[in-house]
């Protein structure tokens, strides 16, 4: 027996009810705080590109009012405005994706899928981007893996990991993807030779809008939503994701997903109730 067990008071029914009520209130308060934090983050993120666009367009208008706008200036400013619009668009697309996935009733299309083919398709699409930055990407797989997955969601999850491997890399670096399987799960490992993630940030990188180095990430066009989307997509499959990283040496993400998709009780209930 632990000392605490011996000293545990007998709760009356009223006390138990009061305790449960307080716990529920605490939980609701936490949920509300997290919702408020999210709305505040979203507003802030959407405002930043807007502010830049406003400054750029106002400068152009001002210049036009005092005389001719030099061609070079016009082009430079318009390119910057166009980049800000791209950024705004990316944030909104990512947000919609995330909100959709986090909904309890998210629609999933599970299909028997050749995972090797799926990863090959992703690599084919990302190779030109990697080559532009002189990053080598490769795939290692031992045998064909057939698993029950939502192809779109898994593609999104793994694309984000590989894109990060390319983005947060060094000159002439590499991204290596490997596949493995046992009786129950398949494993996707995405390893890179990049800048690495400090230990204290590793627990937070899956949070929405979290970035390790805000100025650096902004420079390379991150929204801070990629890993949150990846995590949600992995969880939809009842899988798990882990990160290992050493600052200055590189990062490895490992995703583990069951070969067979099984609905949870909650999902079955949600489906039954329409
Ligand atoms: P972002 O859109 O900023 O890339 P993510 O959610 O994808 O957002 O990642 C969150 C942060 O985690 C990034 O801003 C970056 O600082 C860090 N990060 C993610 N992947 C890697 C990686 N492979 N190597 C180094 N840092 C990474």
Automatic annotation (TrEMBL):
GO terms for cellular component: plasma membrane. Residues 41-261 form the Histidine kinase domain. It catalyses: ATP + protein L-histidine = ADP + protein N-phospho-L-histidine. Its EC number is 2.7.13.3. Keywords: Kinase, Membrane, Phosphoprotein, Transferase, Transmembrane, Transmembrane helix, Two-component regulatory system. It is an enzyme of class 2 (transferase). It is found in: Membrane. Its main location: membrane. GO terms for molecular function: phosphoprotein phosphatase activity; phosphorelay sensor kinase activity. The keyword Membrane applies. GO terms for biological process: cellular response to phosphate starvation. This is histidine kinase. It comes from Porcincola intestinalis. The chain holds residues 214 to 487 of 488 of the full protein.
